[in-house]
Amino acid sequence: MGVLDSFGLQIALDDYDAEVCFVSHAHTDHTKAFSKNRKIIASDETFLLLGKSPSCHPLPQGTSLHQAGHMLGAVQLRAELDGQVFVYTGDFSLHQGYTTLPAKILECDTLMIDSTYALPHLRLPSRADTIRKIAKFVRQNENKIVLLGAYLRGKTQELIRLLNEECGIAPIVSSKADYFCKVYRQSGIKLDWIAAGTPEAQEAMKSAFVAIVPLSQANFSFGAKLSEAFGLEVKTAVVTGWAAFHRFPADEGFPLSDHADFRDTMRYIHESNAKKVICANASDREAAAHLRRIGIDAVAKSSLSGSHQCSLLECMHNK
Ligand SMILES: [Zn+2]
């Protein structure tokens, strides 16, 4: 993800190619530095979600961390270098979630922004509508087993809170998800769930129940096996932003996302007043090309010289 050159100290951004690494949040595609014995800059919650005691490397002079939305503990990195401000958003969201606050839009000269949904056709439907549809689906199938597929970290906890608040239901989750839910609870987020394998879960599974499972299990074939084992009809749904753009082999797909979509990505870019934008993550070259077409000075992170070892300070000065 690039290396930030700050006063002689190199900081790898969601990567591990420097002694000091910034880990924006606890999703596994951002946390490789933890397995490489590096000095880590991350929020306490990110350390805890990864099963580590919080031990953040002291922040270099001129750098600070800011709320990014997205999931518990997700932060942006802001660095002031030679009077220029650089911001790396990591994955972020601008909406108020059930378990997250909106990301703060930081003014800067150079903005390195997550470009997961940074193309014009990647617009997500209204979040309120999606929430209503999920709640309706769960209520309509109250006499059946309902399997909701979601990522273990972040989305599962968002969905638990949604089910608690909108349906009055405490869903069953896997023991792996149970660990992450406990970290959320320790961090002050109210969640009510049942861990699989406990007597409480066995009791709940004697009749119709709602379970949150990994995305790969919320499908027709797993549903059919479960239906045979429990003698009840099973309904399946995936809960991911990608459900807005792809069909999944499930009864329903609900595009509830913890990322900024195209509109929110553009809002961040405009309100940050950035003079230069670096697109990072999936589709970064297409996203940068689109931004250039509409008059924004943008470059794809993957096209920067030396790929991993680019100096962003250099990039800021080579405008
Ligand atoms: Zn993420």
Task: Describe what you observe in this structure.
This protein has helices at residues 44-49, 127-140, 155-167, 175-186, 199-204, 220-230, 262-272, 284-293, 312-317; strands at residues 3-6, 9-13, 20-22, 39-41, 63-67, 75-81, 84-88, 110-114, 145-149, 172-173, 194-195, 210-213, 234-239, 252-254, 276-280, 298-300. It has a 6-stranded mixed β-sheet, covered by helices on one side. Strands 11-10-12-9-13-14 form a 6-stranded parallel β-sheet, with helices on both faces. The protein is α/β, with parallel strands linked by helices and 319 residues long. Helix 2 (127-140) crosses helix 3. It is built from 9 helices and 16 strands. 28% of the residues lie in helices and 21% in strands. The two termini are 20 Å apart. The chain folds into 2 domains: 3-122 and 259-317, Metallo-beta-lactamase, Chain A; 127-254, Rossmann fold (3-Layer(aba) Sandwich). The chain is globular and about 65 Å long. Mean pLDDT is 92; it is low at 307-311 and 313-319. The longest helix is centred in the middle third of the chain and has 14 residues, at 127-140. The structure holds zinc ion (ZN).
Per-chain topology:
Elements: E1 3-6, E2 9-13, E3 20-22, E4 39-41, H1 44-49, E5 63-67, E6 75-81, E7 84-88, E8 110-114, H2 127-140, E9 145-149, H3 155-167, E10 172-173, H4 175-186, E11 194-195, H5 199-204, E12 210-213, H6 220-230, E13 234-239, E14 252-254, H7 262-272, E15 276-280, H8 284-293, E16 298-300, H9 312-317
Parallel strand pairs: 2-3, 3-4, 7-8, 8-15, 9-12, 9-13, 10-11, 10-12, 13-14, 15-16
Antiparallel strand pairs: 1-2, 5-6, 6-7
Helix pairs in contact: 2-3
Zinc ion (ZN) binds at residues 25, 27, 70, 91.
